Amino acid sequence: MSTFKETGLLPEILEAIEALGFENPTPIQEKVIPALINSTSDLIALAQTGTGKTAAFGLPIINQIDMQIREVQALVLCPTRELCMQITKDLESFSTKMRGFKTVAVYGGSSITTQLRDLKSGCQIVVGTPGRTLDLIKRKALKINTIKFLVLDEADEMLNMGFQEDLDAILQSSPDTKQVLLFSATMPKEIQRIAKKYMKDAVEISVGKRNAGADNVSHEYFTVNGRDRYAALKRIADVNPNIYGIVFCRTRMETKEVADKLISDGYNADALHGDLSQAQRDQVMGRFRSKNLQLLVATDVAARGLDVNELTHVINYNLPDDLEAYVHRSGRTGRAGKTGVSILIIHSRESKKIKELQQMTGKTFTKKMVPGGKEICEKQLFNLIDKFENIDINDAQIESFMPDIYKKLDWLSREDLIKRIVSVEFNRFVSYYQDAPDLNLTRTESSDSSDSREQRRQRGTTFSRFFINLGLRDNVNVSTLIGYLNRNLKGQKIEIGKVEIMKKFSFFEMDKIYEDEVLAAFKNADFDDKEVVIELSKPEPVGAKKFQDEPTDRRKRYNNESSSKESRFKDKKKFGARSYRN
Ligand code: AMP
């Protein structure tokens, strides 16, 4: 392994990073720093967050900045405001010994006036989100004709967030002489397009495999029924009393629901999602960073740019639609030389996805059993004992109370006393988990795919029946409806049972295990610009044929109602059907 000295960095920079406690370069730094100091070639680096990539580009750029000139010499583009602030903070900490050096951060959702003023007073590096950066270039407040370096950090995330056009515009308006440095955790086609269009003979640097996860992260999965996801999450949290992690959900609604349940069940958790104001987001992130929160329930988008090094766990409450996002999620733990665990809670049909993930990352995913009550209680008990052993005793504060306390407990033996103290906390878990069921899917539960559809249907309990407000008048027939369902379920192979198409609405059956997934997949869905409503229907009544032929109250009601959203919701209440909570 090389040292920072050997990479050719200036003494002022070496001094600053020594003060930060950086002893040796990380693998990405070992490769990128000399490449940037000794060559003017463009560079593509495949690297996750947490690998030290900010220093990998930041240190050699600062090394080559002319401090005498107060014009922009490097532009760093990144996907989020949080990452923007983090990179700026890092660059400032690398340059504490460089006189005259200034970095300005520009990002949306914040006053442009301050950013205009900062830019006007001059700086050598600008770190920005693409939208705000382009805005400032158009206003001629940010001049990038002098830049020597253009960094695209988390390029794949910038494209995922829809910044492609902004990036194209910025790249086109920058000078040809610049060196482009592209950092990305994954290499989708669009990134390759950018590289081809805007980079010349780029040197490709990769630490680890393409799309691979970080090395010090272990991957574990738990297979449960869809409806037991939340219970499994709680057990995972309970068996890891010192957990400090992010729980990733697929939608804002799911994020809110899971966080609300955790809070009301007494966990130290909160939600981070796009419906929060910037101030609320900052507050939640602040609490999480300072470890006042143990579990942060978040969507992928909301958690972008959240830079926390000591996460013990990342929990995939639901797998992301795009499996590459898993690499980003799991890369949030196991950072800066620490180890971490990435947990997936899946149902039996998702085993295929585990195989895909194994292939994509080249990592082993270990199947784990959801812990039972005994295991959890044991873990909690010994955690409590550890706490007793290691607690700091504030003698000065409690001294005056001790004589009375000793007197009061005098009649108890040492053993009795210990038992009582332990029970104060422990009883809660023992009573909760007393009759806790086994959440692991049994062989029969998970391997019933060999059943024929008819066998499953006849069993009567395997399918759930759903109502959908699309029918013949919407040009829907059985095959268009099945196609529509499959499209919205985005590759989740859920067995469809009986389908009944009527004039204005239809019924279809789907594997009961996936009730929640089906309802969630059609939230905010539309069909030919019509808002689609799907809800759980009561089981098919005996004499279903009669139901089809003779309009019931339910059909009458639906047919007569206006189609406003509000009235449909009223309708749902009247039907007594369970709709997915908003
Ligand atoms: P990054 O991937 O840039 O987000 O960096 C992840 C974390 O690793 C940051 O907190 C850095 O301060 C830290 N870090 C970066 N390089 C080193 C290094 N060479 N030695 C120790 N820590 C580092």
Structure described in brief:
The protein is built from 26 helices and 20 strands. With 582 residues, the chain is an alpha/beta fold. The strands form four sheets. It has a seven-stranded parallel sheet, with helices on both faces. A seven-stranded parallel sheet has the order 10-11-9-12-13-8-14, sandwiched between helices. The chain has a four-stranded antiparallel sheet with strand order 16-17-15-20, with helices on both faces.
Descriptive account of the structure:
This protein has a seven-stranded parallel beta sheet, with helices on both faces. Strands 10-11-9-12-13-8-14 form a seven-stranded parallel beta sheet, with helices on both faces. A four-stranded antiparallel beta sheet has the order 16-17-15-20, with helices on both faces. It is α/β, with parallel strands linked by helices and about 575 residues long. Helix 3 (about 55-65) packs across helix 4. The model is unreliable at about 445-450, about 455-460 and about 540-580 (pLDDT under 50). The protein is globular. Helices cover about 45% and strands about 15% of the residues. The protein has four domains: about 5-205, P-loop containing nucleotide triphosphate hydrolases (Rossmann fold), CATH 3.40.50; about 215-370, Rossmann fold; about 375-435, no CATH class; about 445-580, Alpha-Beta Plaits, CATH 3.30.70.330. The protein has 26 helices and 20 strands. Bound molecules: adenosine monophosphate (AMP). Adenosine monophosphate binds near residues 54 and 309.
